[in-house]
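Re-run requested by the PI after the first attempt was lost when the workstation crashed. Everything re-entered from the original request form. Ligand of interest: nicotinamide-adenine-dinucleotide.
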Amino acid sequence: MSVAGKTAIITGSNSGIGLGVARELAKAGANITLNSFTDSEEDHTLAASLASEFGVTANYVRADMSNPDDCRALIEAAGGCDILINNAGIQHVASIPDFAVEKWDAIIAINLSSAFHTTAAALPVMRERGWGRVVNIASAHGLTASPFKSAYVAAKHGIVGLTKVTALETAEEPITANAICPGYVLTPLVEAQIPDTMKEYGLSREEVIRDVIMTRQPSKSFATVEQLGGTTLYLCSDAAAQVTGTTISVDGGWTAL
Ligand code: NAD
């Protein structure tokens, strides 16, 4: 079974990892639904350019992943779902006493609860179509922790747990659920953390990259969005039909430390 002709929905996919994974799936022939909360002209142009570059069907659906109804409506609007990539995510860095409640709520909603809502809407569709793949983009922070990232670490550990439950509830069906745990990938999300970390530790940008970010990543280099797309393709392949309820780290050795 290849992904060609399958319908893939990727949450939070107008930039970074989501877009990279969408591109790799489109390159392999999957029809794509891109998503974000913005609904800009560029979002629709992005979908059109995927369609023309790879000869697949691609559309863009606005849905705010902090809103449960939007999450469920996204699956409906895509008009089918064989592959669900739960990728939307945000970050905020502060110590627990200083962590704004609205930031905690937003991270839990977007990084964790959205995956519950999209999965709940997608599983009946996959069952009807007789095949499915759920790929949750977790993080090395789904397996380990860092100070000042309480909500993110809690949400990412939570999505690893949700992945296991999804796998158990679909274990006897041709549906799998797995989580990819990337280390650092240079995307807008990571770029946005650099100024906060510079402030938190009183370091320059270069020092933050070398002494804070890469101290956790023994390879000393960023993972790429193409590598995460390749890992997703593997999880969608027949070779991975018995790979379910687990995590795959793409973290340059982070979790080996
Ligand atoms: P990014 O900021 O480039 O992309 C985040 C995406 O989520 C964007 O498309 C954005 O539009 C979307 N998004 C944010 N809020 C949304 C909302 N309310 N509704 C719908 N979409 C929303 O970041 P990224 O680095 O590509 O992160 C993607 C995922 O990968 C996140 O879940 C992140 O936690 C995870 N991750 C990233 C890294 C990394 O180093 N970049 C490492 C591990 C895990």
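Saved to the shared folder this time. The chain has two domains: 7-185+223-251, 186-220.
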